[in-house]
Amino acid sequence: MKKQNTKTSDKIPCANCNEELNSDTDDDDKKNIGCDFCDKWYHKKCTNLIGTPYHIAAIQDYKCDKC
pTM of the prediction? Predict the structure, then answer.
């Protein structure tokens, strides 16, 4: 199953837009997606998964553009 960034004490920026990632959102496009090939995290809206429902994106392998 796809990992989700749930740390609340560490402020981790999106590797694409540098805005803070937020795990506590109901907006699917603002939820976080981690690359399965490196340690980078992204807003779903900052990936090619925009438009894909989060519950589907979360179980797919994601490979960021840098990998």
Answer: 0.76
